[in-house]
Known about the structure:
265 residues; mainly alpha; two-stranded antiparallel sheet; EF-hand calcium-binding domain-containing protein 1 isoform X3; calcium; disordered N terminus; two-stranded antiparallel ribbon; EF_hand_dom; 57% helix
Amino acid sequence: MITNNTRKSGKKDSRGSKQWPPARIVNSKRKQLSEQLNSTKLMSKVKPLISPNLIENLFKQTRFTKKEIVGLCKLFKKLVATYGAESTSSVAAMSSAALITIPTQGFDRLMFRELLQNEFGITTEEILTDRIFCFFDQRNDGVIHEDEWVIGLSVFLKGTQEERIKYTFTIYDLNNDGFITKEEIFSLLRNCLVKHPQDEDPDEGVRELVDIVLRKMDCDNDAKLSFEDFSTAINKQSLLLEAFGQCLPSREISEYFLNSISNVQ
Length: 265
């Protein structure tokens, strides 16, 4: 038992018990602990900076300014959080039937489809939204990452006429063989045209339209569109750029989106 006299004198009693530490030592340790906790809280609130190397690399690969790239990178994180927090891919474990969920930071197909509609006003058919996703997903891993997002948007929002022609041709070339075939044009137009129930053969009108398009755009008359055919036709008539379905935002939406980048916190 520690007596009052023992506490005051700071000596051990006969059984070797220690005195209570003086109040000033206790207060000092509490202060140190409090400062450590506050420091930890402050560090947890500090947002990681965007890598200067990433900014420099994207600046060289795109038509964005460095300030716009910083804004796009910040916006990327916000939009990923808004459209699903984290994109995930499920991989079956080899040793069991359980599924392992691996979080991946970026847009998956479903999130990106919603983003195209809500942020860019692109309400096209799934066949085209999937092609647009593939254009952005340069790694072909099913996720649009931060750098892919910025590089894709460079063509999407600031592309030259030649870049936009190449982009739309890539979107419409469904099997990636370097040609937009008659069958591909039919598939694209069939999905985007409104069908009337009273029509005996609703596809007949689509086939007629495909023939009209080929007569107008197929310069070498081989029943398919090469990039040269496509490019020549669009340079003569720019309205043909999205002839087979919407795959670019309007000029107004593009300008609004670009103007909003600098305000991202």
